[in-house]
Design a protein that fits this description.
Structural class: alpha+beta
Bound molecules: zinc ion
Radius of gyration: 31 Å
Number of strands: 39
Helix content: 25-40%
Strand content: 15-25%
Distance between the termini: 90 Å
């Protein structure tokens, strides 16, 4: 501390000894400061940076809107109140400017607040022009001397984002007060930040969810002794996964933050969360680190994270640490927008109470243990307040801003260097480019993928002439990494090592990898080239490349998906090219959105559309819902073109309407004067319901979003709706039951325990923002036994029920799907992994438009087994699931022979039964066959998981033998209807376009799912 004999510095003076001291000449807002102190539950839960509030004659404090101080108990402002305050400060201070950065799905505004000195704000545009050159070093011909001149003349931008996760409530008030301090405080510490840094603040990222959560909190305050609902809906579509959208960019909030971050050319994106006591600075985090980021960034993380811990430790604040168990592998987090665009990503977890109540909190030993990286851990018992949380958030941010102010030019130079190294990628680690061929059979999904790269600010070029490059063809077989976990993907395993030396073949990117043979390949005019000699090459490389997570990685608990390879999940071919000649191909830059070319050619009133599993086909069906759509049950040829099974034959449509829709959707349509001769069935626009639980709406949100984006109408119903409706079939043809998220079947039926009070989710005067998506007087009841009966009746009446992952286990558990069971797979580890599947029954309408292989997304998937008998466990003859022959003479494939006995004729050979098949029915089973499923009702396996050695495409796979060759998509006929079970999750985070049509096919062919089926004879 500073001067004075009492030990209490009444008016500390700034000095080298106390760099944190306030300006003695500036008065303190005594009333505000008194309240802050009152709401802080212990003296060590604050710091000299935030334990006072400077007074201002002109700028209002947060009291102006909150009627109390930031972090006061019982006060959570709505978004409009937070914005009102920011605009009051803007009006009162030349050091603050508010920018509108876009709207949410529900039309609420998002803002960014810039705070800096008057001088810095006056030259924002000039500064932005400088930063733009540093961000794209091509503009200064990679001239380091010019970069140094720009660095010296520029002010860095530090972007802070709050409350993406709605129950993490503290950031808005912390950021209101932070903006006030940065605008008003004359202490040397704050002045330096103001003069050397532009602080940019988005106080609320998930604005829709914030307003809903404030509603819930208000209900809780108004009903003090009652149980209250969790915030079931955050954004319009998803809850916590709003922080997993930075790859697919499907949400408005992600795109708005990305555009702000990149357009401002900010150096840091610092995202505020609240789930760990008291401040876990995830800046350092834990391994494995993402493999595509610049190592300059990873060392910046260490500098910044440990500095943060060091400074806050000096303030005597307990529980501040930066190393922890969250890996930094997936680039899906909001903060990773910075990491993928040459900036610095940061994330805080402070401690929050889910609202603004002051509470006694008990922590677990794992949270309070003293470890090497947490020498000053949180306390086992704490009275914790929102004010404490606001103190920690603001102190950490000020420490960070101060470090940035002290090192502004250092970090700006790094920013430039990371951009320059991204541009030099083809010459260093590679690759040189990714190529998307103009002859891809799926131009629509190809354009979908490339548009995501464009949203990521990646430049796309189009070849104006054919070009030839060398590409790898085949590799020496890779050595198995574990007994059942051969490497899939692309040569990512260590090659066979015959002479005790590591394979020194330097393949793509100079990495050690399996031997590959190079061949020339020519790509046609119009092929797309994603060149790696551009500033944001890293995000393209990270999304397009393959991931490999070693089963024995020291990190035992991946925090999120381990694989995401976009071309695989979009079912689109991308070629990774290391040959630098690709950069000499004649190209033009793509201006505007990449779009597949569509429209009608030919003449006549019969229209053909090839089925290539492009999701736009589904949009076409619903856009022209009054037209007559037939689908071909076999491939055929017409007008000199090949058409796949499932191709559309459209009648009764106005040519102009069809041409307009096909052009907009990028679908090629061929007009003919007569109907081709091929077996068809009708494809009515099915009436769809999407059923949700009141337990969690997170994972089904991705399904709703996909249906909305693709223009597919549906009724949104809950398990409670179903429990009350005995005649579902009169309203719906198809009920989708997407994953609930690790829910047991019993939980789906029972719902939340019925102790205590009813818990409503509905729009009221007190809660105007909730209950719009769906509403109920009491969220507790589940599907119930009546609901089970109603769902089964729906299927028996001819309805189609689609169940996925945990809901597929649910339908198996409750007897919807005779002949399908799930088998335990204790050794299996699939954590958000891309796996390979194989077509089993190409004549099934569910498989229309697909080829032999399909990469899919799965996360801890159920392993199915099928049987021709009710209660059968599937797999091999004999029913024990064994794949081994009995002990005896000969090799593993030989028949055994009894000694001394010669049968009169050769014994019949045991039929080989694969893990995705059921065993043929035996004579024994047919006698008094009460359990025997009639042939037409037996499960029909449409796709299966691939063989163990090529099951893995991308990510983590361990114990893959438990899943290999198992059924993946099973169509179970039940009376007049069907239950369709998915082990994979075909609709996930806007990243799995390639598997959407498995669901869409089931919908389009809902009343003809038995097409092409070959029945067993008996
Ligand atoms: Zn969070």
């Amino acid at each position: 501390m500073a001067t004075g004999g009492t030990g209490i510095a009444q008016t500390p003076a700034p000095s080298a000894a106390n760099p944190y001291a306030r300006d003695a000449k500036q008065p303190v807002d005594e009333a505000y400061t008194k309240k802050m102190k009152e709401y802080t539950t212990a003296p060590y839960f604050t710091s000299p940076l935030v334990d006072y509030l400077p007074a201002s004659k002109t700028v209002p404090t947060p009291v102006a809107v909150l009627k109390d101080v930031a972090g006061a108990p019982g006060i959570l402002p709505y978004s409009h109140e937070v914005y009102q305050y920011m605009r009051m400060v803007e009006k009162a201070s030349p050091r603050v400017k508010v920018f509108s950065i876009g709207k949410t799905e529900e039309g609420r505004e998002m803002i960014a607040v810039a705070v800096s000195s008057e001088a810095n704000l006056a030259k924002l545009d000039a500064n932005r022009a400088n930063l733009a050159k540093l961000a794209d070093p091509r503009t200064i011909r990679l001239d380091d001397a010019e970069a140094d001149r720009l660095v010296a003349a520029s002010t860095p931008i530090y972007y802070i984002t709050g409350t993406i996760h709605s129950p993490e409530t503290g950031a808005p008030t912390a950021l209101m007060e932070l903006v006030y301090r940065l605008a008003v405080d004359e202490s040397p510490y704050i002045q330096k930040i103001r003069n050397k840094v532009i602080t940019l603040v988005t106080p609320i990222v998930e604005v829709d969810g914030r307003d809903r959560h404030v509603d819930v909190y208000r209900w809780h305050l108004a009903n003090p002794n009652k149980n209250w609902p969790g915030t079931l809906y955050w954004g319009k579509y998803v809850a916590h996964d709003n922080n997993r959208d930075a790859m697919g960019l499907t949400l408005a909030l992600t795109r708005n933050v990305l555009n702000t971050y990149v357009d401002w050319h900010a150096q840091v994106l610092h995202d505020l969360h609240e789930s760990v006591p008291y401040l876990y600075d995830n800046t350092v985090g834990d391994g494995p680190y993402n493999a595509w980021i610049d190592p300059i960034l990873t060392s910046e993380w260490q500098m910044i994270g440990w500095h943060n811990v060091n400074e806050m430790t000096k303030f005597g604040m307990p529980g501040v640490f930066t190393h922890g168990t969250f890996d930094t592998w997936s680039p899906g987090y909001l903060m990773f927008i910075a990491a993928m665009h040459n900036g610095i990503s940061r994330l805080y977890e402070t401690f929050g109470n889910g609202g603004a109540d002051t509470l006694d909190r008990s922590l677990t030993p794992s949270q309070t243990s003293r470890t090497w990286y947490r020498q000053n851990p949180p306390l086992p018992k704490t009275k914790w307040s929102q004010r404490n949380n606001n103190n920690y958030e603001q102190t950490g941010l000020l420490v960070s801003l101060n470090q940035f102010a002290d090192n502004a030019q250092y970090f700006l130079k790094n920013f430039y260097l990371k951009g320059k190294r991204s541009i030099l990628k083809p010459k260093t680690e590679g690759p040189a480019a990714y190529v998307f061929s103009a002859d891809d059979p799926r131009p629509g999904p190809q354009a979908d993928l490339l548009r995501i790269l464009q949203l990521q600010k990646v430049e796309i070029a189009r070849a104006t002439r054919p070009f030839t490059v060398t590409v790898p063809t085949k590799r020496r077989p890779a050595k198995q990494l574990t007994n059942d976990n051969a490497a899939g993907g692309r040569g990512l395993s260590v090659a066979d090592d015959r002479d005790g030396q590591q394979d020194t073949q330097r393949g793509e990117g100079g990495q050690r990898r399996a031997e590959s043979v190079m061949e020339s390949r020519t790509f046609p005019t119009g092929s797309y080239i994603v060149r790696m000699d551009q500033p944001y090459s890293r995000v393209a490389d990270a999304l397009l490349d393959y991931q490999y997570w070693a089963p024995d990685d020291p990190q035992r608990q991946p925090y999120d998906d381990t694989g995401w390879t976009f071309p695989e999940l979009f079912n689109v071919k991308a070629t990774r090219v290391t040959d630098a000649n690709v950069l000499d191909a004649a190209v033009e830059p793509v201006k505007g959105d990449v779009k597949a070319i569509g429209g009608v050619t030919g003449t006549g009133s019969v229209y053909l559309v090839n089925h290539n599993a492009d999701p736009a086909l589904m949009t076409l069906r619903y856009r022209l819902k009054d037209a007559k759509f037939d689908v071909a049950e076999e491939p055929f040829e017409a007008a000199g073109l090949q058409f796949n099974r499932g191709s559309f034959i459209i009648h009764d449509v106005a040519a102009g309407d069809l041409n307009k829709a096909a052009s907009e959707l990028g679908l090629k349509v061929t007009a003919l004067s007569s109907t081709p001769s091929v077996k068809t069935h009708g494809a009515r626009a099915a009436r769809i319901a999407l059923m949700h639980t009141w337990i969690s709406t997170q994972d089904e949100g991705w399904w709703r979003q996909t249906l909305d984006f693709r223009g597919v109408p549906y009724a949104y119903i809950s398990t409670q709706t179903v429990s009350k409706d005995p005649d579902l079939k009169s309203k719906y043809d198809v009920i989708l039951f997407p994953p609930v998220g690790r829910a047991s079947g019993q939980l789906i039926v029972s719902g939340t325990p019925m102790y205590g009070n009813p818990i409503p989710w509905k729009t009221t005067e007190l809660t105007p923002n909730i209950g719009k998506e769906d509403s109920t007087d009491d969220i507790r009841p589940g599907l119930g036994w009546e609901g089970l009966v109603h769902l089964q009746k729906f299927v028996r009446d001819g309805g189609v029920l689609i169940a996925v992952d945990d809901t597929a286990e649910f339908v198996a558990q409750f007897g919807f799907t005779p002949g399908v069971s799930t088998t335990p797979s204790p050794r299996l580890k699939v954590v958000g992994t891309v796996l390979r599947s194989k077509l089993v029954d190409g004549a099934s309408p569910i498989a229309y438009g697909y080829g032999e292989d399909l990469s899919i997304y799965a996360d801890n998937p159920p392993a199915f087994a099928v049987s021709a008998t009710v209660g059968g466990r599937g797999a091999r003859r004999g029913g024990d699931g064994s794949t081994q022959r009995a002990t005896g003479r000969g090799t593993p494939d030989d028949p055994d022979v009894a000694q001394g006995f010669a049968p009169s004729q050769a014994l019949p050979e045991e039929p080989r039964v694969e893990p995705w098949q059921y065993a043929p029915v035996t004579d024994e089973q047919r006698r008094n066959a009460t359990n025997l499923i009639p042939p037409a009702q037996r499960p029909r396996v449409v796709l299966r998981y691939s063989d163990a050695r090529d099951l893995l495409v991308s990510g983590l796979l361990d114990g893959g033998a438990d899943l290999a060759q198992r059924p993946m998509v099973v169509d179970v006929p039940v009376d007049k209807g069907h239950v369709i079970m998915f082990s994979n999750n075909p609709i996930w985070r806007g990243e799995t376009q390639g598997s959407y049509f498995l669901v869409f096919n089931a919908i389009l062919n809902h009343d003809n799912l038995n097409a092409g089926r070959k029945l067993d004879e008996k």
